[in-house]
Design brief:
CATH class of the largest domain: Alpha Beta
Shape: globular
Order of helices and strands: HHHEHEHEHEHEHEEHHHEHEHEEHEH
Largest sheet: 7 strands, mixed
Helix content: 25-40%
Distance between the termini: 58 Å
Structural class: alpha/beta
Number of helices: 15
Strand content: 5-15%
Number of strands: 12
CATH architecture of the largest domain: 3-Layer(aba) Sandwich
Strand order of the largest sheet: 1-7-6-5-4-2-3
CATH superfamily of the largest domain: Type I PLP-dependent aspartate aminotransferase-like (Major domain)
Length: 396
């Protein structure tokens, strides 16, 4: 089977990077644990080392199992090249540090993922990189800051955990006008629902730990973009040594075989649950881009094929204690700091996405302490609704 660009997303999720047979006629990707790869022919070895022919030398650089994972994500996102790292924050930090130098400027938004926000608020300023964070939904303000000049425009949509929506195409045009590299964290949307490169972004980033893997059993991160940009990120990553392990790559690959099916189910479940919560007397507010009431609904309709499996909501009372009460009452949800898995997962920003931040920092990002982040799984939706209803009504 060839790598046909016309193949649909579900087909690419299964076959991408896995055409033909592997070593020993294996039909599944082998897990290659070898640290190094030997050569009898010195000229061949040198050619591989110089990049004149394909091959592997040392797993810190490249590995056969990891390469298949990178290729599958590349095909799903429609980029020229891809490279990986040991985690989502691994690929985000490597990408930023490989492309930025002292005196450069980054423009982004206030309520990115907590680890990313800490990169912007603490680690990049340490090396004299200027960072400006704008109100997330004020596109005009973001464009105005970009127009002043920047090296990187960093986007995340939908955002974690407030599920806000950014217009990638509009903001990418602003970034391109000043020569900025436009990055987009696509973890929440996944390639099934959204392709930032097709909307004008230069790089798309994923915490593969989440939806790509889908089973909460492997860490990983991946970046997709032009050959030139990925080469720069890869060169930095191989020296820093932030390596995706072969076994993790295998687990992520195995999970991705069902990516399209999982996302279809999670999209449907999340939309039904969001509508259910919006009409529930025990809920004050629901954040989900599939709802017509969501401020970013029209943008999401335009740039997304599905609205995703992530939502958040505020329980009646609106306090952190109210959120904890509801979370404690859930029976069909893992109370854990993860998302995107086949089982439903729930938590508060204080214990999940923004655990690194203080209460005051979360407030400055517009993240309520009372917010419940709810990652919808593939369970029967009626069971999930009944579980939420029971948890919301206790002590009511």
């Amino acid at each position: 089977m060839g790598q046909d660009k016309k193949h649909a997303m579900g087909t690419k999720a299964v076959w991408g990077g896995e055409e033909g047979l592997f070593e020993g006629n294996a039909t599944q990707v082998p897990v290659v644990h070898s640290v190094s790869f030997g050569y009898e022919d010195m000229d061949e070895w040198l050619d591989v080392a110089l990049g004149k022919r394909s091959g592997h030398i040392y797993t810190r650089n490249t590995n056969p199992t990891v390469s298949v994972f990178e290729e599958k994500v590349r095909l799903l996102e429609g980029g020229e090249a891809a490279t990986s790292a040991s985690s989502g924050m691994g690929i985000i930090s490597n990408t930023l540090f490989s492309l930025l130098k002292p005196g450069d400027r980054v423009v982004s938004v206030k309520d990115t993922y907590g680890g990313t926000n800490r990169m912007f608020s603490e680690f990049l300023p340490r090396v004299n990189v200027d960072v400006t964070l704008c109100d997330t939904t004020d596109h005009a303000a973001i464009e105005a800051e970009v127009a002043k000049g920047c090296t990187v425009l960093y986007l995340e949509t939908p955002t974690n955990p407030t599920i806000k929506i950014l217009d990638i195409e509009r903001l990418a045009k602003a970034g391109k006008a000043v020569g900025a590299v436009v990055m987009a964290d696509n973890t929440f949307a996944t390639p099934v629902n959204q392709n930032p490169l097709a909307l004008g972004a230069d790089l798309v980033l994923h915490s593969a730990t989440k939806y790509l893997g889908g089973h909460a059993d492997a860490l990983g991160g991946v970046a997709v973009g032009s050959t030139e940009l990925i080469k720069t990120i890869y060169s930095y990553r191989e020296i820093v040594g932030n390596v995706l392990e072969p076994m993790s790559a295998y687990l992520l690959l195995r999970g991705m075989k069902t990516l399209y099916l999982r996302i279809e189910r999670q999209n449907a479940n999340a939309l039904e649950i969001a509508r259910f919560l919006e009409g529930h007397p025990g809920v004050e507010k629901v954040f989900y881009p599939g709802l017509e009431s969501h401020p970013g609904h029209e943008i999401a309709r335009r740039q997304m094929r599905g609205f995703g499996g992530m939502l958040s909501f505020v329980a009646k009372g609106g306090t952190y204690e109210d959120a904890c009460r509801v979370l404690s009452g859930l029976r069909l949800a893992r109370r854990a700091a993860n998302l995107g898995a086949v089982e439903t997962i729930a938590g508060t920003p204080a214990t999940t996405s923004h655990v690194e931040c203080t209460r005051e920092e979360r407030a400055a990002m517009g993240i309520p302490e009372s917010l419940i982040r709810y990652s919808v799984g593939i369970e029967d939706v009626e069971d999930l609704k009944a579980d939420l209803d029971r948890a919301l009504r206790q002590d009511a």
